[in-house]
Amino acid sequence: MHLIIGLRGIKHDTDRFINELSAKYLPLKFKDKETGAVMEKLVQVAVRPYHIFEVVFPKEHLDAMCNTLFAGSPGLSNTPRFRKWVRWVRWLIGLKPIPEYKKEQIIPLYLANSEIVGIGVKEDNFMEMEIDGRKYEVEGL
After folding, report:
1. What pLDDT digit, counting tens, does each position of 44-59 carry?
2. On the CB side of 89, how many CA atoms lie within 13 Å of its CA?
3. Which of 51, 73, 116, 119 is most buried, with most CB under 10 Å away?
């Protein structure tokens, strides 16, 4: 059986959940085709990720973040069928498409052996915060 779930949360907590879930073993029944006898063996729960991450950062770094993650491209998948899925997910979550961005700055980051696909963006709301008795307006990350 394959159960597809969505997962969102603090990275170290979701990592722990995934590690604990994938460490579980459940009995699997094997039926002998000749005798009909049933034997049980323990099998490990397989956790196969389809990852969607919400990367949160100050808006003024959007160009550098997009240029880093998408390597100067529009952030599209190499698979046309997957592109249709991305548009549907963007609509479902209520995001805007990845905007045009400047290709000047790059944040040093390990990106080997991964396809990073831009699904969309969401604007932050500004909020009021008090620090040391003074009120500040800040981007609500």
Report:
1. 999 887 778 889 899 9
2. 17
3. 119
For 84, phi and psi rounded to 5 degrees? -65, -40
**Closest-CA residue to 72 (of 60, 61, 64, 84):** 64
| Both structure tokens of 139 | 């981007």
Indicate whether 92 pLDDT > 90: yes
Asked if residue 139 and residue 124 are part of one domain, the reply reads yes
| Residues 98 and 111 occupy one common structural domain | yes
| Whether the predicted pLDDT of 34 surpasses 70 | yes
Are 45 and 113 within one domain?
Answer: no
Q: Are residues 106 and 38 in the same domain?
A: no
Domain endpoint, select from 36, 51, 66? 51
Q: What is the domain extent for residue 131?
A: 56-141
Is the domain of 10 the same as that of 76? Answer: no
Phi, psi at 37, each rounded to 5°? -65, 145
Burial string for 7-30 (b: 16+ CB within 10 Å, else e) reads eeeeeeeeeeeeeeeeeeeeeeee
